[in-house]
Design goal:
Elements lengths: L7 H18 L1 H38 L4 E6 L3 H7 L4 E5 L4 H10 L5 E8 L2 E4 L2 E4 L2 E4 L3 H4 L13 H6 L3 E4 L1 H7 L9 E4 L2 E8 L8 H7 L7 E4 H7 L3 E6 L2 E6 L4 E5 L6 H16 L5 E4 L1 H44 L1 H9 L4 H43 L1 H6 L12 H27 L3 H6 L2
Parallel strand pairs: 2-12, 6-10, 7-9
Antiparallel strand pairs: 1-13, 1-14, 3-6, 3-13, 4-5, 4-8, 7-10, 8-9, 11-12
Helix pairs in contact: 1-13, 2-8, 2-11, 2-13, 2-15, 4-10, 11-13, 11-15, 13-15
Length: about 450
């Protein structure tokens, strides 16, 4: 090593000092130059946080249906809907029946549980207040299969209710708020098409009113009323009638839904394939039964969200590109502005390496500082979006202009912070290389003559 060679650490510290000194001389210009990087990093973090938050909300909704569950649902076939346009009164018979139940039991000996649901009645009322029925007869096992929770003081259906055909009901949180806003509904009476039932429990709010889970269920579960299936069979017929605009229509199904719970999440797909074979044997031509597998939907949501996060990140990264171009533009102008300084340094013995290092330190510092500020800005926006937006959307003048319900949920992911900062720092260095090389190539004689 040459005795006059500069120690590496001293060279690095001196270069860093000179670079920071030059940036401090033009503080406002440095901040404005970093603005593109700041906004780019913040945009990446915010976009990924919104995408991740919405994914987690969808996953929660789907998991609430039971990751090990397979839902077999009766649905009105197309021909029944078409018939409704030609007749003032008709009853459409479709969907799951006792034969399907027996065939499923035989085909699925390894299923942990099979729980039926059957829709009953057309109207629910308490005194003069009434609403369209969402009454379902079921068995006590539904509580565990759907992970339902009953509010303190109440209970869910028990085997004795089913055996004794008791007139008891467990109501959803929204039904409780609708009919009993100021008092406890426990022990109160509820009428279902004129039949009186005693309320023995209130379900805690179920987060499936909207989102991915709500679209699968097709209704707000908080408006459900659950009664013993045996009681429903005794008190009501299989046909449900609803009157609309002077005409009525009816739907007759033996089972509205059947929940099948696999004994393990890894067995869901094999079991679902067997379920599909059983159902297709009788219903594929009519299309009056639908099979829903939340486990498959969960994987689909995760794949879709990953692709959406990549897209949002790519869009937000455009700001980083613009920020990098801004840094290169300012540094090229700086080369012209500091030509005489470069000439003096070269005359005093500075090498190409010294000049390039100084300019790269400046661009790297600009981009790194912008990245740090962008992280704080982006994290702040992400933390505030699900707090500030609901307040803004609740304003009366906003609600008058918005017909749809808009919800946002943000979840900050460490990888988005790390990646955005790394890309921001790299962007500054990459876009600073060309100005640094231009500065190092200055001829010392010509640079000293520069005015």
């Amino acid at each position: 090593m040459c005795p006059h060679a500069e120690p590496p650490m001293q060279f690095l510290l001196e270069t860093l000092r000179l670079g920071l000194s030059n940036l401090r001389l033009h503080m406002l210009r440095s901040i404005l130059t970093s603005l593109g990087i700041i906004l780019g990093v913040a945009a990446v973090i915010l976009m990924v946080a919104i995408g991740e938050g919405n994914k987690r909300a969808a996953v929660r909704d789907i998991q609430a249906l039971g990751a090990r569950n397979i839902i077999v649902r009766s649905q009105r076939p197309p021909e029944a809907t078409a018939a409704g346009g030609q007749q003032r009164s008709f009853v459409a018979r479709f969907g799951l029946n006792d034969v399907d139940w027996d065939r499923l039991e035989q085909a699925l000996p390894d299923a942990k549980r099979m729980v039926p649901l059957k829709a009953f009645g057309s109207e629910v009322s308490v005194g003069p207040r009434r609403t369209v029925s969402q009454v379902f007869g079921t068995t006590p096992e539904l509580e565990e299969v759907l992970n339902l929770h009953v509010a303190a003081g109440g209970r869910y259906l028990v085997p004795e209710d089913e055996v004794g055909r008791s007139r008891v009901a467990v109501i959803g949180d929204a039904i409780a708020d609708m009919f009993f806003p100021l008092s406890s509904p426990l022990g109160e009476s509820l009428r279902i098409d004129g039949r009186v039932f005693t309320i023995v429990g209130v379900l805690e709010p179920i987060g499936l009113a909207g989102g991915a889970g709500g679209s699968l269920v097709g209704r707000d579960l908080n408006l459900d009323v659950h009664i013993p299936l045996s009681t429903g069979r005794l008190e009501f017929s299989d046909a449900v009638y609803r009157r609309v605009s002077g005409s009525f229509s009816g739907e007759e199904t033996r089972f509205s839904e059947i929940y099948i719970e696999a004994d393990d999440a890894g067995r869901v797909q094999p079991v679902s394939r067997r379920v599909k074979r059983v159902i297709d044997a009788q219903h594929s031509a009519r299309g009056d039964v639908r099979i829903i597998v939340p486990w498959e939907l969960l994987a689909s949501v995760e794949r879709t969200t990953f692709a959406m996060n990549l897209l949002l990140t790519a869009i937000a990264a455009i700001s980083l590109l613009v920020g990098g171009i801004g840094i290169m533009n300012i540094m090229l102008a700086s080369v012209v502005e500091r030509t005489r300084e470069i000439g003096i340094r070269r005359a005093l013995g500075a090498t190409h390496r010294h000049i390039i290092s100084q300019f790269l330190v400046e661009t790297g510092t600009l981009s790194a500082a912008g990245g740090v500020l962008g992280i704080f800005f982006g994290v702040g926006l992400a933390l505030g979006v699900d707090r500030v937006l609901p307040w803004i959307l609740s304003l009366s003048w906003v609600q008058r202009r918005l017909d749809v319900e808009v919800t946002f949920e943000a979840a900050i992911t460490p990888w988005s912070v790390i990646v955005s900062f790394t890309v921001a720092a790299a962007t500054g260095i990459v876009f600073g290389i060309y100005p640094a090389i231009m500065a190092a190539r200055q001829d010392p004689i010509q640079a000293l003559r520069h005015e």
